Amino acid sequence: MLKISNLFANIGDVKILNGVDLEIGKGELHAVMGPNGSGKSTLCHVLMGNPDFEADGEVTLNESEILGKPQFERAEDGIFQSYQYPVGLPGVSLMEFVMASTEGLNEDEIISVAKKFNVEEFLDREVNVDLSGGEKKRSELFQLALKKPKLALLDEIDSGLDIDAIKTVANLINENRDDETSYLLVTHYSRILRYLDVDRVHIVVKGNVVKSGSKELIEEVDSGGYTQYQEQ
Ligand SMILES: Nc1ncnc2c1ncn2[C@@H]1O[C@H](COP(=O)(O)OP(=O)(O)OP(=O)(O)O)[C@@H](O)[C@H]1O
Ligand SMILES: [Mg+2]
User: Fold this and answer.
1) pLDDT tens digits, residue range 148-187?
2) Tens digit of pLDDT for each residue in 114-145?
3) Atom of ligand 1 nearest to the CA of 84
């Protein structure tokens, strides 16, 4: 479904990704872990097509090359990004935003999905303005459920959440999983991964995937931290 080969990325003179290889199959959920500043968010930005980054290499979504495409085309192709730090959109209500970004859904349908995600009271408020950290993450997952993307990039969807909220967020992801959506989920912590059915784990260090493996890697990270990979 997604195939990343030899992906490099930089901002000006700052090299951030140094030859990333990663493949995600249809409907799979892959966890990406790694120390601060290793390039995890950059990987998400580059896949979504953030123009701040210069990218080089090959990235195909269902065998069609996406690297040259602008962000909106990638969104149309079915890529969805949930940001580590969701940006507020003053002056735009969440309802207006999702009506504009989803096709063929009426207000009643949107409200019924909003109830499921417990974000109904945010629909009339500005997108991500004055929401708590956990509320923003719920709002992102609500948008993901409406969009039904082919590839969901979830960047630290568990950051800043209390223990119960992590479980809630994991359950919301689980309820929405099907064969049509693949997930690249960036996280620092094994807690959320315990509640999810993880197909593969990738460790990113200094802009490269230094190790990939099955769920067992999560335990390895938990017990040994990231320094064991940095020394390699
Ligand atoms: N706009 C930018 N200008 C200069 N350097 C940048 C820019 N954006 C990111 N970087 C640098 O790229 C590196 C990777 O950043 P990135 O945000 O991808 O890391 P990360 O793995 O997501 O870290 P964290 O776990 O802390 O979220 C960092 O050293 C960061 O300072
Ligand atoms: Mg990050």
Assistant:
1) 999 999 999 998 889 999 999 999 999 999 999 999 999 9
2) 999 999 999 999 999 999 988 999 999 999 99
3) 27
pLDDT above 80: residue 231: no
2-85+148-230 fold: Rossmann fold (3.40.50)
Contact residues of ligand 1, CB 6 A cut-off: 11, 14, 16, 34, 36-42, 52, 84
Question: Each residue of 32-52: b (16+ CB within 10 Å) or e?
Answer: bbbbeebbbbbbbbbbbbbee
If phi > 0 it is left, if psi is from -120 to 50 it is alpha, else beta; for residue 3 that is: beta
CB atoms within 10 A of CB 108: 7
